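Contributing: when you submit paired examples, paste them exactly as shown. First protein:
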Amino acid sequence: MNEEQDLLDGAALTVYRLNGQFLTIGDGLAAPAGISVAWWQVMAAVQEQPLPVAGIARAMGITRQSVQRVADLLVAKGMCEYRPNPAHKRAKLVAITAAGEAAIRRIDPQHAVMAWRLADALGPAAFAETVAVLTRLSAALDMIIAADESAG
């Protein structure tokens, strides 16, 4: 293997580990509100504005089907609702309800504590740089995937 392959493997394995760590932390934060981290992610995605399931999936980098399952559960529990989508008759918008907002508000205090703890452990500047580097990595991968899809 060459150095670039080693770096790709190291980046991928680190991100997979980070994903597991974030899911563990997220589940711990979400549990007192009676929701899962997956529910929290979908509600957070539509907290600012309603989105179609496909839009949520794109933003989260996961399949539309997995978002659809979570959205259906959230609607059944009254934490989200489906609304008509003026841009697309069949793809309804997912919108957070007052109950969903209340669940997220219950998470906020411990979420703030965890954010402070991580900033304290890394240092605020290193924390910001870490986010910037991960964002650049994601954008580079998006470009490569798009190039492969258009070539393909």
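Second protein:
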Amino acid sequence: MNAETSNTVDLPAVRRLEAVGFRAWPAASVQYDGSWQVRLTAGHPSLRLNCVVPLDPGDFRDAAIRLEKARKRFEAYGRPLIVRETPLAPPPLIAMLDGEGWQRFESVSVLSADLATIELPDTMDHLPSHDIGYFVDASLKVEEADLIRKPALAEILSAIKPPSGLFVIEDPGKGAIASVLCVQDNDLAGVMMLAVAQSERRRGLGIEILSSALRWARMRGARSAWLQVVTTNEAALALYGKLGFAEVYRYHYWSRDGQS
């Protein structure tokens, strides 16, 4: 039974993880409509950077009017309106979306782990870089992503305020083959953008680079780690489960046509 269906979701924990998540992955434009956060980023397709996030279960006032206002803002950015449903979303809003034919099209599990209980190597196999340009190039190569994202990704990483560690594993003949971003926000460490090159998987590189990132964060005073993973990514969920990560809550994306 997951945290969502067990009806035991810890709302203060959700609020805190949402807050550190916003700081770890900052949108270019953030506006508030009541307690709804409207996030938009013209140059990057990340759903977390382009969505409306209601943050108070009781804030349902004039929902239809506010959604239409948000839709026009998204339209100006050339994007469809996306609503991100966390346990903080007003239930009447979600019922309204469902009743009007909106569809959930992606679900994400937010996991956390106690860094004191994770077995990590005594030494760091990989040291963090602070060279954003180098990390962006490495990350795009590992993920085989479109190079057109480079300026926007560099802007996002440059906007992260908490201390960040940029980790890359390189092969002498192949270049970058694994990468991960770790954002240390006081006692919480956020793991972002973990990727292993398609040709290098099932070699333990994911655990290797993640262990270095977590050890770096623990040495800096982080006590817990968190990350987000799409619920259909069984390989990633198995990897994180081995390290002791457990689900805190889930969130879901909604759109009118069931896609981003």
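If you have annotations for the second protein, write them as plain sentences, like these:
The chain has two domains: 11-111+251-255, 117-222.
Confidence is low (pLDDT under 50) at residues 1-6.
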